[in-house]
Specification:
Length: 298
Amino acid sequence: MPAPIHEYAAALHEHLTRFPPTEGFRLVDVRAEADQAADDTTDTKGDQVAVVFRWRRNPHTFVLRFDREFAGVFGPEDAVTRTPHDDVVREVWCENVGFWLMEELDTGLLARARRRRAGPEIVLTAPVPQTHDAPQVWVDEVPQFAPEVHLPWRIHARLAARSVLARIRGRRAPMAWATWGSLDAEPGDGLRDGEWLGEAGMDPARVRAIRDDGRLLVWLQALTDALEDLAVGQCAVVTTVDPQIARIEVLETTNRAPEGLRDRLVLAGVHVAADEGARTVLVPDGRGGDEAVDTALC
């Protein structure tokens, strides 16, 4: 007979206290929840252990649940073959949970997971399956004050090849400075940050001006793996007089951006703003006004 669920909870609390899975994770509690019923928001039923935590500066408290059968890097058979003792089984189980939390939280679990409110807590369940755009699109922060633009290596290689071909043909090579920037150079002055967004028809100067005013919270860009449409969108989230409210002030996509990119930029901006402490993000509604988005359930 397996050990009682409260023993799993106690072991996991000690493990996560001694070995926090990643920077930004703050453990609030680990509790045993006996005989949990399955519904459309959970993937398991029966006894579970609930990990209650905070993430970075996010104002919300999150919950993830794990049952005894949870297995990740180390399968349950590893513990059985080593020794049948319950304490070793629990130790391996705790290591599984810790490694899973480390990998998933550092790769954007909070942005992918489904959410539901349970009192003051936000319960996270199985991540929404990711779909791939054609061409594939990355949404990431715009590099700032750097001598080199740190793009995904595939794009960087394509940019280098395009720059060489352009020089051979005697043509202008867009973003050549980003491709050949020195790795050990001093930080730049930021005056050319987002230059490639301007080449795609957007207005990075507007975001740089916001930054100069001290209101910029995050600057996001959408990049594709298509050379002819490298940059297809940008989003700038700014602070307001209320530290719990942020606002998307710049939201641009090109006329060749993939369908749904605007929503992806908004969602990314909301999640980053939440991690900086915002409970509400004001999003342009397309009619000259703003829509208030609760970062808890977005």
